[in-house]
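pinging the channel bc i need a second pair of eyes. not urgent but kinda urgent?? the chain im working w is below, pasted from the shared doc
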Amino acid sequence: MNSIILKARNEINLLAKNVPQGKHIVTTDIRKLSGKLYRTLDNHNKEVVFALCEELLEQRNWESGVIAFDWAYRVRDQYNEDTYFVFYKWLKKYVRGWGDCDDFCTHAFGALIKSRKYLFGEVLKWTGDDDFWVRRASAVVLIPAILHNDYEGIRPFLISDALMFDQHDLVQKGYGWMLKSLSTVDYENVRNYLVDKHSLMPRTAFRYALEKFDEKTRKRLMEL
C-alpha cells in the first residue's frame, strides 16, 4: 500500500475515534484532511494523482472516496480526452451511493463534461444503463455546466425525456434536480416543459424540478 494511502487510512481512523458518541465524521472534516494530504504529495501530475485516487477508491469506504474524488477535481486543468474513460470506469466500478454519485458528478466528472461538451453523446447513453447509479449520473453530471450557464451543445431535456419513466426514485430525484438547476438559467423553457410533461412525469421528479420557481408558479404547476 502506498504510504500516502496508509496515512489517509490512519488519519480517517483517528478522526473516527475522536467523534463524540452517537455522531459521525462530517464531510467538511474529510475535505480538510484531503487538502492537507494533497499538499504533501511530491507529484501532482494527473497520472500519478489518478493512480492514487484509484487506490483510495479500492478502500471501498465513503471517506476514502471523498478524498479520491477531491484529488481528481484538483487536477482538472490537466484533463484530456482519455480522462473520460478513467472517470467512466470509476463511475461503473466504485459509485455505490448517492453521496459518491453526486460528489463525483458535480465536481470532477461534471467539470470534465463542462469542458468537453462533445461528450454529451456518451452521457446520453448512460440513461439506458442497467445500473441506476449510472442513470442518475447522466442527469447530475450536467449540473455544473448548467449552473454556470455554459452548456451549449448539451441538451438536458433529452436526458429527462430518456429518464422520464424510470422507476427508481433516486433517478427521478436526479433528473428532477437537473431540471431544477436548469430552471435558474432557462426559466421559461423549463416551465413550459413541466406544463407539457406534467401528466407523464413522476411526481417525485416533478416536485424536485419546480423547487426554484416562485410560490405562485409552483402552486399552479402542482395543480395541473
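so The two ends are 57 Å apart (CA to CA). and The mean pLDDT is 97. — does that match what u expected or am i reading it wrong
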